[in-house]
Sequence to fold (457 residues):
Amino acid sequence: MNDSQKSGLSQMAGTAHTIHGAVKTGKAIAAAAKGAAVGGPYGAAAGLALGAGRHAGKLLAVAAVLLMLPVLYVLMLPSLIFGGLTSNGSPGQPVLNDNTAIVQNVNDIAFAVNEVLGEGIADAEARIALDFASTGGDHYEIVNPYAADMTSNTNSFIAQYCAARGESWDSISLTDMQAILRQGKSHLYSFTRTSEVRTVEDDDEATADVVETKEETWYIYTLSYNGEGYFADTVFRLSDKQKDLAGSYAENLSLFLGDGMFQYTQYNGTTVSSLGDVRFTDGVTEVVYFNQLDERWANKPYGTDNIGGYGCGPTSMSIVVSSLTNDIVDPEEMADWAYKNGGWCSKSGSYHSLIPNTAKAWGLPVEGCTASEPQRIVDALADGKLVVAIMLKGHFTTGGHFIVLRGVQDGKILVADPASYTRSQKLWDLSIILNEASTRAGAGGPFWIIGAGSASQ
Fold:
């Protein structure tokens, strides 16, 4: 970063200091004006976000309209761009208005986080080897749910890092963030251990002509990801106030990126009456329907959250598994399975990897699909497959939300919305679903085609 960039950053940071404590709407609007005085509309956007605090989410859409920004950067900390205030290819062009630069920076952050996660897994495997050496067992194996996808909520890591840095805006960098994450890598993953006796063929050369067996003691180690909450408490050591601020940072970043990492259904404890056994028969595949707000399980735990507010992921997979296999799995059972197998993301809903991992666990073929492949989606539904989609703000949610596409009728799409029986009875234009799907989903999304097709049903 050159001297002029540092100067601009410091000036913007100074404004941030002034408006950091303004959390009421009126003061937040004033903060936008102060930001504009420093950095034009881009400074206004940053100033508005900083001034809004936990209310920023309600103001961002307004800011986008008032300021007419092509891209509204809502990290709430301008220096977290990690590339300075100008992009390399366009001197004087604010990086806030350079979508390519922002996407590249976010990808770099995700790569850096995944690098640390990989080191965390290697560290856990080394600890497992040491643990096994003390058991006297014959062999061991590791069950690693994260082998195909090192699950994490990068937005939360970014948010916690920003909150921990407080007013030290000029010290923020990707290198520094990765170094701090690396300090805690030895506790990123924990493991549980079970043992069993297995009967195996005896490969003793002296008895090669005779098939004999022997018993061996095997230890099975299952890895579990401790989650971003571990870093908030142990590495970043955030206060409750900082945790609240980090939550706002992360939600706004997810909103900006369109990744659907924050799934929350408006739920205040009021459930819907038990729907009983509901099945939709208007598509090629008969679909078993579950609703996350059903009184039978809405208040049941999903990790430390509840199914009613955060359980659209496991409820969607309850629908899929119960419809495509001979195993009826209700949302309470699926939420427990998801929690134990690394699918739950604290205060955010589910990691996107929950969808393919669950399908594979129940022996169902699964393929990722993008919004640019509408014919694949239609063909899959016509063939009796189900498609899980992660949706953004629009007709189905105000944030992020998993739904199941369950068929095609009269050129429109049938859905099973785990948060609304009413929406599940309507026909939907495919264009609505494509336009409102996540733009940066992980684990192969925003659509996952599941099932072997009608020929194998």
Q: What stands out?
A: The longest strand covers residues 189-201. The chain has three domains: 3-83, 100-239, 278-456.
